[in-house]
C-alpha cells in the first residue's frame, strides 16, 4: 500500500480521466477511486489549482487540465519526436521548396522544435525554441482542433486570452471555436498573414497512440508564390500521417 495515499489517488485520477472520451462527474471519479465523494472534491480542487484538471460547472463534470497536457507533450519531446520527424521535414522542404516546421503545444503557445528551410529562403520569425500564440499559427490550430473542446475552453476562457500580431485571426472564444470546427472538418489548418504579413502556412497534426495531438507539421511559403494551399496541405497531411505511424510504432515496442 502506498505511503502517500493522496499522491496515489491523484495519479489514479489523472489516469482515469486520460482514458475517458470526455469530462466525467465527481460521482464517477469517486466510484473509480473507491473513496467518498467529499474526498474526491478536495482532491479535484487541489489539482485544479495546479492546472491538472479543469471544472465545467454547467455540466458538473471534470476533465484534464492544461498542466496534464503539458506533461504529456514534454514526454514526447524527451522521447525523440524530433528524431522521428526530422527526415520527414527534410523531404518536405526538398520536394516543395517550402520552409517546414515541427511544433508542439506548450500551454496556449506553439513551441517550434525543428525548422528546415530551402536555400535562399526569406527570413521568418519562427525558429527552434520560438513560441507563438497557438490560435494564430497553422500548427497551433491544427493541434487545438484535435483537443477536447473542454480543454480548448480552459486555454481560451475569454477575450483576455487572445493576443494579436497583425490584426487578423480569431480574437474571441466564439471565433476560435468556429475556425477550429471548420479546420477539424477539412483535416488541416491555414494561416495567411496572421503571424507575418506576406506569408501563408498550412499544417496538419500527428497523433500519439491515444489519438491525442502530439505535434504538427507545417509548410510556409510567401503568399505571392504560385502554389495552392490545398496542394501544400496534402503534403503536410501525408507527413503528419507518417509521423503518427512512427509514433505508434515506437509505442508498440
From TrEMBL:
Keywords attached to this entry: DNA-binding, Transcription, Transcription regulation
Q: Does the keyword Isomerase apply?
A: no
Domain IclR-ED per the UniProt entry, residue ranges: 67-249
Q: Which domain of life is it from?
A: Bacteria
**HTH iclR-type domain: residues covered:** 4-66
Q: Which InterPro entries match?
A: GAF-like_dom_sf, HTH_MetabolicPath_Reg, Tscrpt_reg_IclR_C, Tscrpt_reg_IclR_N, WH-like_DNA-bd_sf, WH_DNA-bd_sf
User: Record's Gene3D superfamilies?
Assistant: 3.30.450.40, Winged helix-like DNA-binding domain superfamily/Winged helix DNA-binding domain (1.10.10.10)
Q: Name one Pfam family in it.
A: HTH_IclR
Classification via PANTHER family: HELIX-TURN-HELIX TRANSCRIPTIONAL REGULATOR, ICLR FAMILY, HTH-TYPE TRANSCRIPTIONAL REPRESSOR ALLR
Q: What protein am I looking at?
A: IclR family transcriptional regulator
Which species is listed as the source?
A: Nocardiopsis codii
Give the classification, highest ranks: Bacteria, Bacillati, Actinomycetota, Actinomycetes, Streptosporangiales
